[in-house]
Amino acid sequence: MSEFFVDNTARPRRSLLSVPAINLRALQKLSSLTCDGAIFDLEDSVAPEVKDEARDNLLSVFRETPLVNREAIIRINPLSTTAGRKDVDAVLSCLPHAVLLPKVEQPSDVHELADLLDEADAPEGMQIWAMIETPRGILNAAAIAEAAHTTGSRLGAFVVGLNDLRKDTRVPARPGRTYLVPWLMQVVLAARAYGLDVIDSVSNDFRDLDAFATECEQGRDMGFDGKMLIHPAQIEAANAAFAPDEAALAEARETIAAFAKPESVGLNVINMNGRMIERLHVTGAERLVAIAGIIAARKAENQ
Ligand code: COA
Ligand code: MG
């Protein structure tokens, strides 16, 4: 199959704040925060005995104070559990932009959820995002991403989860994530091969913001689109690191303008101030400019 089935519309996904669905105070804080999206968590941050209450919280939040102009994602429990099945019912009532499926290890995990959403007539635009957070998930990342090529798979993004991965592999948490980098890059490569967005893992230490900023820059340089966050204090650094920088933006605008000139028709390469630019750079440049436009509009809105 050669066609892509992913909705590739450019959206900023710099900062996706996870909020335990049981924590009403944190849920109510969301509308005042400047994260690009919220991940409403029904999985690991919610104890089994209060999962029903957490689902009820989500129903009220989505009904009474829905996020405006930001992506809402619900992380459900694995479908092999009773909690996971009940979470799907909550998803169908809340209608988030995406459902985040934990511990995805094979393409059939994605297809199983897509089938459930289809059977319930969930909106076509509702995406599935896959957490890649187990050794098998990493090993099978390419096959899972390839599921995005299947009609109706709904797969839109990968989110890396290092807490589970470190536990399963026994690779300890160290500054620089040295021995984890090869696996992270494998996930980025798999996502890009099939047109998916890819989000870097949470960082647990939400008080050391210098170390966090350094990790955001590392994630950006590895090619991630943004970071999953656990605390509002982390939003600013993620928004700064994953925003298109001014120089890249200026070059993107120049590239688009250069290829739009009448004299560039039929040219695939142009001399731009002593550097070669190629027509193939135009799509990436347009994406960057679109994302920067959304970010600028949000800034204006918050002022
Ligand atoms: N989303 C929204 N608001 C949050 C928040 C979050 N993830 N984490 C903290 N806050 C709010 C708190 O409610 C508090 O608000 P208040 O001042 O109005 O009371 C404020 O930010 C400061 O919080 P702080 O006291 O520094 O932290 P805490 O002890 O309340 O919470 C954690 C610390 C780690 C328990 C909490 O940040 C959390 O639950 N994070 C998400 C965990 C998660 O989702 N895990 C699963 C994915 S790995
Ligand atoms: Mg996990």
Can you describe what's shown?
By secondary structure, this protein is α/β, with parallel strands linked by helices. The protein folds into two domains: 15-242, Phosphoenolpyruvate-binding domains (TIM Barrel); 246-302, no CATH class. Helices cover 45% and strands 16% of the residues. The protein is built from twelve helices and ten strands. Helix 4 links the parallel strand 4 (98-101) and strand 5. Helix 2 packs parallel to helix 3, helix 9 packs parallel to helix 10 (235-242) and helix 11 packs across helix 12. The chain is globular. Coenzyme A is lined by residues 17-20, 25-26, 29, 41, 44-45, 202, 230-232.
Could you write a compact summary of the structure shown?
With about 300 residues, this protein is α/β, with parallel strands linked by helices. The protein has helices at about 25-30, 50-65, 80-95, 105-120, 135-140, 140-145, 160-170, 180-195, 210-220, 235-240, 245-260, 280-300; strands at about 15-20, 35-40, 70-75, 100, 125-130, 155-160, 195-200, 225-230, 270, 275-280.
Strand content: 15-25%
Predict the CATH topology of the largest domain. TIM Barrel
Shape field: globular
Total beta strand runs: 10
Roughly how many Å is the radius of gyration? 20 Å
Outline the low-pLDDT stretches.
1-5
Oligomer status? single chain
- What is the helical fraction, as a range of percent? 40-55%
H-E string: EHEHEHEHEHHEHHEHEHHEEH
Distance between the termini: 46 Å
Strand order of the largest sheet: 1-2-3-4-5-6-7-8
- As for the number of domains, it is 2
Main beta sheet strand tally, sense and closure: 8 strands, parallel, barrel
Structural class: alpha/beta
Mean pLDDT: 94
What's the CATH architecture of the largest domain?
Answer: Alpha-Beta Barrel
CATH class of the largest domain: Alpha Beta
The small-molecule ligands in this entry are: coenzyme A, magnesium ion
